[in-house]
Design a protein that fits this description.
Largest interface: A-B, 57 and 57 residues
Organism (chains A, B): Vitis vinifera
Oligomer: homodimer
Family (chains A, B): Belongs to the LOB domain-containing protein family.
GO molecular function (chains A, B): DNA-binding transcription activator activity
Protein name (chains A, B): LOB domain-containing protein
Order of helices and strands of chain A: HHHHHH
Largest sheet of chain A: none
Shape of chain A: rod-shaped
Number of strands of chain A: 0
GO cellular component, one term (chains A, B): nucleus
């Protein structure tokens, strides 16, 4: 569990200043958007700070409204650091979609895309079938041209010698 | 606000049994999945009961893990009754996708579908272009066949009379 609530952690740290004791989280000058909105002290160990900079408060407001801060923190903590930025981005995206469409959210978008995909597959199959027919007809026409061209040459040859 | 917490509502209701006083929520025999998991008394006024029957506890467990019970309740309450079932279904769907893909969730599915759609559109455009070319070639071949067929008839006519 990497996330530590800075408002409570201090009281659990032993007062002896042994060099082996874990260092206390240091408060940052400019709190992240999450800590500012949740009215918490933001520290250098804040698990949300890298993904919710103070310059973009709306991202956290929307993600918090849809998923809740504790669920966002839990999701982030359950992932390796290399995947966290993508996870937060996808949660912000989903939250935005849910705000725009509170009934269907991303599920609605997925359903619409599936329908479009299905329509396109039908159209592609029909076009491919039409192409196959036209290519078959072209093959037959080619054979007719070769035959007629050959007959023409033969007739010309015949009329020349008769 | 239709949802009332049955554990606290009782204390706020006036004790006088006036006919104008709102009736107390009645506890149900079989609590819904949400109330059972949240260890709350389920009543006939439970806003989640119609969408989380006791027979399907996993739907609530997953939706609660991703969105949180309070956010689900808020989302449901903000919608007219006719849209609530769809909203809960879409939240259960999204929560399931997020559990399967904790990094990208539905956003990942949408991105994949967009890519498939784009690939299909490219394939359809290429097939349509190929069809247009083949149809043009077929037109030219048709004209050649008419011309050669005509010449053949003329040659046959000529050789017959000469």
């Amino acid at each position: 569990m990497e996330y530590t609530d800075p408002t409570t952690t201090g009281s659990t740290i032993p007062s002896s200043s042994s060099s082996l004791a874990p260092s206390l989280p240091t408060a940052v000058q400019r709190p992240c958007a999450a800590c500012k909105i949740l009215r918490r002290r933001c520290t250098d160990r804040c698990v949300l700070a890298p993904y919710f900079p103070p310059t973009e408060p709306f991202n956290f407001i929307i993600a918090h409204r849809v998923f809740g801060a504790s669920n966002i923190i839990k999701s982030v903590q359950d992932l390796p650091e290399s995947r966290r930025a993508d996870a937060v981005s996808s949660m912000i995206y989903e939250a935005n979609v849910r705000m725009c469409d509170p009934v269907y959210g991303c599920a609605g978008a997925i359903s619409q895309l599936h329908k479009q995909l299905c329509d396109l597959q039908t159209e592609l199959a029909a076009t491919q079938a039409e192409l196959a027919i036209v290519q078959c007809q072209q093959q037959q026409l080619n054979e007719s041209v070769i035959f007629l061209d050959g007959s023409n040459s033969a007739s010309a040859w015949e009329s020349h010698w008769n």
